[in-house]
Amino acid sequence: MKLAVGDKYESIIQKSDLISRDLSWVKFNERVLDQSKKSFRTIFEKLKFLAITASNLDEFFMIRVGSLYNYLDYEKERVDYSGLREEPFKEKLMKDCQRFHQDQHQHFTQVILPELHQEGISVVNVSKLTAEEQEKVRQYFIKAIYPMLTPMVYDGYRTFPILMNKLLVFGVVTTSPGERKDMRKMSFVQIPANIPRFFEIESENSLTLIPIEEVIRENLISLFRNVEIESVSLFRITRNGDFTLEESEDMDANFLEEVKRKLMERKTGRVVRIEIEEGYSKWMLNSLLERWNLRPDSVFLVRRSSMIDFTGLWQIVGNKRFRDRLPQMPDPVKPLSYPEEGRADIFDILKGKDILLHHPYNNIDSILDLIEKASEDPDVMAIKMTIYRLAKDSRITKALLRAAENGKHVSVLFEVKARFDEENNIREAKKLQKAGCFVIYGISNLKTHTKLLLIVKKDDQEITRYVHLGSGNYNEDTARLYTDIGLLTTNEILANDVSEFFNVITGHSVPSDYRNLITAPRDMRNQLIEFIEQEAENARNGLPSGVFIKVNSLEDSEIIYALYRASQSGVKIKLIVRGICCLRPGRPGLSDNIEVLSLVGDFLEHSRIYHFHNNGNTRTYSGSADMMVRSFDKRLESLFKVESPLLEKQLMNILAYNLKDNVNSYVMQEDGTYLAKVPQEGEPNFNVHKEFFDLDAEEVMKVNLID
């Protein structure tokens, strides 16, 4: 029997020991969409998760599909982990994306819209409104929208207009009265991004939402007077946003200009996807496909009963009248290692002990307060830190500016290549530079992803170094939504390591060794493989062994094969991987002893923890690095060792609680699919996103990861 094309590809894919990064990512977005399908969630939570899947998919097409087109367009060879070459892989990937797209829209029309209606919220066309409401809409169009619209015609006299990334566009095909059909023209009307997605008509018990495209569609004729409109097609394009900066050794203004130029290219990069409403003009779509060199599998059809671009649903979620309907998270609790929070001087506390912060259960204010206090303290001499992403109105920037004004030495490495935060980072970095701070805009061809803070303070004729090392960004906004780890310490070994690392970042230094810090790109991959191989050696010698790792993504093949070898030696390996996972768990003879879980829920799991049993002499690390090629080879990353017994137990308990979760957890199968983990009969729900608010030190000290 001859295999169908899709089945043939599936056979090749399943034979591979590794899972495609991109196909794995699609499975991750399916898990996010599954959160929108959970019956226990309110309609507003369901809207939120559906909107997240849409913005995730936009970024995926811009970056990952954009990268794939870089290979296709320039005829560069690429063999994916799946075993497929560029063209077959694109065919398979588009098939999976089309299926996901259909699932999104089916969920919206069959579940979301009816549940919104039950809440008194209606999404309607203008024709469904009363005469009075229609007049309101007409006046809104005339006064607020009409002046913003610019029809752009394409014909033999005018060049093809630049259509912007991710904007809704009306493609209008017109003819002049009496002209032949082959004289028709194509015009485009872009809907500006600064117009609200819905026009809202509120009453006491209901909310009527009219999508902005329906308001414009109803009045589109006012832009095309005295011509015949043959067809109107609503569509949206996604452009390639993947670029690699060719960075020189000169990292000053020239480098910033290069970043700015690449940002501009994002607006005109090659088109990688078209979302288009049913009933479109075939002539227009064929013209667009030919112009943009796309095949039909890159066209995503949307039914009129649905809508293009679910990111607009944030307008409903953010509506003030529904503020009380969104689940309220408990207030942050005091860190187990810092019960004195808010009542004692943090500088004094850190002289006596380390503090472990687990966000968002513990407030990020401890870090912000430390930096703000340091900026004003006359005994603080220097502040050094790395910045990857900041909040829009950042307390960090304000504190550093005050520190500089107060005569302190301030060194900041701003990673201006932080994807989609480049413009904000450039703006904030320039503020600091003007205030006299020493600002570095990235290192050579590496992206600085490590999260480090060093405060140098004079205490009674002695110099004390206060250090923060973390897994997450210094961003007070995302710290309320992301789970992250932070260590505050004056430990001299770590302080020396961090000082050395800053010298590498800001100067020309190659340290001989770090004691409690593992860094990339120098030796992180090799060090982690060495730890894994030690567990394998212990298992072969009949000694206790175990590997427990929590990361965002697992993609590096050298690490994966080291884990396979350890599994074959008898090491029990438990991995908690939120997103991409290219390892196949439970494959007979290859990975029998490896389990993989993914947690997706109210908080975005962002913390990284690496724990190796090491025959009872445990090694436990946290930090900024995932197990990806880019983390090991193309980024400045760091993992820090946690040695304090209570703090190490806390990290081990985070791993144990994640493994115990039966509300947010999905179990990865050998074929790369995932099954939701559900409570067994008689077993209570265990939701880590709630349990960490009720944790105490006594419970933590009982943790044991090895059965």
TrEMBL record:
Active site positions: H449 (phosphohistidine intermediate)
GO cellular component: polyphosphate kinase complex
UniProt-listed Enzyme Commission number(s): 2.7.4.1
Keyword entries, A-Z: ATP-binding, Kinase, Magnesium, Metal-binding, Nucleotide-binding, Phosphoprotein, Transferase
Domain Polyphosphate kinase C-terminal per the UniProt entry, residue ranges: 345-509, 517-679
Single annotated GO MF: ATP binding
Gene Ontology BP term (one): polyphosphate biosynthetic process
Residue stretches making up the Polyphosphate kinase middle domain: 132-316
Catalytic reactions on record: [phosphate](n) + ATP = [phosphate](n+1) + ADP
Top-tier EC class: transferase
Keyword Cell division: no
Modification after translation: An intermediate of this reaction is the autophosphorylated ppk in which a phosphate is covalently linked to a histidine residue through a N-P bond.
Coiled-coil stretches: none
Cited NCBIfam families: poly_P_kin, PRK05443.1-1, PRK05443.2-2
HAMAP family: Polyphosphate_kinase
PANTHER family hit by this protein: POLYPHOSPHATE KINASE
Similarity annotation: Belongs to the polyphosphate kinase 1 (PPK1) family.
Protein name: Polyphosphate kinase
